[in-house]
Give the backbone structure.
Amino acid sequence: MTEEARPQWLAEGPLFWDDGKEVLPAGIPRLCPERTDEVKAAVSGKYERWFHEGTYTVAAKPAGDIGKIAPGTYRVEGPLAECYWERTREDGRRDHRQPVRDVARKITVTIAPSDDQFTSENCGTWKPVK
């Protein structure tokens, strides 16, 4: 199972198989009031997005598109001996790539607006740096 921010899970997960956004704001405050803020964030689309293994297209406003990542600084933590990541330009040139050979515990990457794609393999969950 992959790890997501709770609002991200609500907005992009299995609860929105159709336009169920009206059900969550109405039902969650009564059934689970401690999660009301997370539901409001999910419904509004203004929530922190976390990223996992895969290749993402860099987009200024990804707005819920699970195949896109916004430019910015991201960090992954944990045992990262098998982690590999790369930033790719639109022309296919690798702007930066990093196979992790030692036992790193934390990696920080800044994805530039000029990047076309970001790829991550065996790194875990990338979270935005605030």
